[in-house]
Amino acid sequence: MGNYLARKRVASAELEELAKEIQRTENHINGLTRRQAFWQRLFSYFAFVISTAIAAVFYSDMPLYGYWIIIYLALPLILTYLLHSFGKRPIGHYYTWRIDRGRAALDVLIEKKQNILDNVRQTETYNVAKELLEKYGGSEMEPLPEEPHNTPKAVQSKGDVFDETSLNLSLLNKTRTPDNEDVHDVTMTAAGEDVSMCSTVTPCQSPPYRRPRTTRPFYPESKTSVDKILDYMCGDGITKRYALICQRCYTHNGMAHIDEADNIAYRCYKCDLFHQAKSAGSRTSLSD
User: Fold this and answer.
1) Domain end residue (candidates: 97, 119, 138)
2) What membrane topology does the annotation report for this chain (predicted)?
């Protein structure tokens, strides 16, 4: 008995610690992804302001004739490209490196948790394994087979119940006599009262609709012209967004930016399925 309680306590303690560590790692990765998008967008605004200011100074001090017009028109584009190459791109590489490290640590934790759950399925009893799998297994784990019972009870389908009721009514009509006529009338009257009572019951009111909390917000359908111009200048817009579609229930989980689409991991708010980042596959194969 002592060994049984010790095994259960050790397995549950390890799974609890791993679940907390996995949650902290996922929060850290999501925080890095948000900071990457924030700093890249902020640097895009900064590059736009700097290039515009330099072009304005160039316009006010330099003569606008001949080849100076070409230089003036090309100067903002050249400055924006240089700032993007030497500023925004290194920021993206830095955060991608940190996110990849977090993904590698998360893969190790998930694999360790999976090994413990597999060991629980093979060594523990049905009740203990079911309790631990329901608490720590998540939706991606396969459920345990039902425990066999000594006297299984067959479950009747709706079609079987309907056929049995129709058969009883037909037999009752065939064997109806003046003696049991009153009984049949009472049965039909009671059934009619049940139907009338069911029809008078008011349906329960559905709870108020609440917008689901998705991993990324949905891109607004209607935007002003100023917003569209700013999105174009900063490298954002509907063409720069990827939809996060669940692989199991095909639920829309928001729109991720193109810079973070390959590095973002999320859980579906509807079926709770964990989706790893697209870049996690190549990293895992290299680590193996």
Assistant:
1) 138
2) Multi-pass membrane protein
